[in-house]
Amino acid sequence: MTTPLQDHELNPGSGHSPTPRRPRGGRGLVPALGLGAMVVSMMQTLLVPILGTIQRDLHASAADVSWLTTATLLSAAVCTPLLGRMGDQYGRRPVLLGVLAVTVAGSVLAALTDSLPLLIAGRVLQGASTAVFPLAQAVLRAELPARRLPSAMGTVSGTLAFGTGLALVGAGLLTRGDAPDYHRVLWLATAVSVLSLVAIAVYVPASSAASGGHTDWRGAAGLTVTLVLLLLPISRGTVWGWTSGWTLGCLAASGAAATIWVRVERSVPDPLVDMRVLVRRPVFFANLAGLLLGFAMFSQFILVSALVQVPPSAGYGFGASALGASLQYLLPSSLVSLVAAQLAGTLVRRTGPRRTLAMGAVTGVVGFALLAAWHSSSAAVLGSGVLVGVAIAFGFAALPAVLLAAVPPEQTAVANGVNSVARSVGSAVASALVATLVATAGQGHSPAESRFTTCFAVASAAFALIALFARFGMAATPGDHRHAGAPKAAGKPGAGPACPACPAC
Asked: What is the pLDDT of residues 241-278, one digit of tens each?
């Protein structure tokens, strides 16, 4: 039996009584933050369907054009934890506005240029938008009463998934015809970013929740080096070769840099990422689950799009166009994710985030297993894709709630930022794996059907691991039972009701 979330918040680790929360979020707060989250996913996927168009228009090689996705990935990984921490320290609203202003600037630069280096620079600026999602989660925690948090988190998480579908459809519609122009897609990115900037400025209130402190620039530099050395070979491995000196050298250097970074973070009084929080069981396994969720989400996006575009003469596939693949096979999954996120928010409040995450993961296992076993009809691919969309929405809604229950309020944004980085790493691994396995035998040839089956099976296994982590890995230990929804002694006489958003309740 569960009880509703209460409108109070405990500062974890303080040992003080819960202080009443003064809710200030108006009706426009959640839609405004949801629009910001939609910008995040749009910036990550908007150019993927039109890389061939850009390559042709700029007379560039495929390897050079692939930097448009690599640059955004690296920028997102580097900026997200730092900007999340700065939001915790100096206030989320000003950091949100700054991030979106940089995103607008990057979108305008990319839309105006015909130079590949300048286009890559614009994509670097757009990559900063990934910090919007963890900052939005922190704003929700600070501004909303606890009973509204799960539903609001579900809404914002749902728009994150929906933005991917919108980006795919928008890119397809704006570049159809005999003379496709990629600049139109980048002007769409500009328009959505400006709209989000205005919405955040109007509806997100200034908060006094900033914790202050000094920015850990040494930690930021160490994390930057570690992530760049890790993600660069993952994203470029298919170009460099997986056993090349560049790839293996960068991976080895990344491990060494990570060791140094951890030592630095343990030695400073106000670290960018608190290692004590990072190794708590719920946080550690939530980040592993985030990595696997990013892997599964990007796998669906790439694999389904590639599968349905294979000509039927190959013995499988439907010969769909890029626009048809987006509209008919990917958009329905994104729309379902938007609705499923609302249900996930309700389930988080009633049953807890761990059970919600596990239910979603099991749905994902079934969805990808069906794709692996049965992808000979459009209906089968659509139905399986919908199941995967539900699983992704449940994951996006549940993981922030797991983190909310495990970290202090002043570390909400940076904790969600690290989780976002984990998802980015998972997406990069998925992209590299799919590019390696689903490789064509030559110009005009389709990949073997068994390679798609293998990739779908691997994605199903990823969701199976998420289910195991949710069931056995994220249970809070007694020392970790410090959450924002209820007193530490929840359930004891006179201590107040339990909080169903906490895994330990």
From this structure: 889 999 999 999 999 999 999 999 999 888 888 888 88
pLDDT in tens, 433-485: 887 777 554 445 788 899 999 999 999 999 999 999 999 989 765 554 444 43
pTM of the entire predicted model: 0.83
Find the helix or strand (DSSP H, E) in which 86 lies.
helix 67-90
Alpha-carbon torsion angle 299, 301, 307, 311, nearest 10: -150
CA-wise closest residue to 158 among 186, 125, 138, 136: 136
Across-strand partners of 9?
19
- Cβ-based neighbours of 115, under 8 Å, separated by 6 or more: 58
Residues in contact with 391: Cβ distance below 8 Å, sequence separation at least 6, in sequence order = 296, 360, 361, 363, 364, 367, 463
CB atoms within 10 A of CB 369: 19
Residue 109, both tokens? 């630069």
What distance in Å separates the CA atoms of residue 467 and residue 477, rounded to the nearest whole number?
A: 19
What is the distance between the alpha carbons of residues 190 and 128, in angstroms, rounded to a whole number?
14
Give every CB contact of residue 165 below 8 A, 6+ residues apart in sequence: 326, 330, 331, 333, 334, 335, 337
**Tell me, what amino acid is at 326?**
S
Bridge partners for 468 per DSSP: none
Distances (CA, A) of 163 to 45, 80, 170, 194, 278: 9, 18, 10, 15, 29
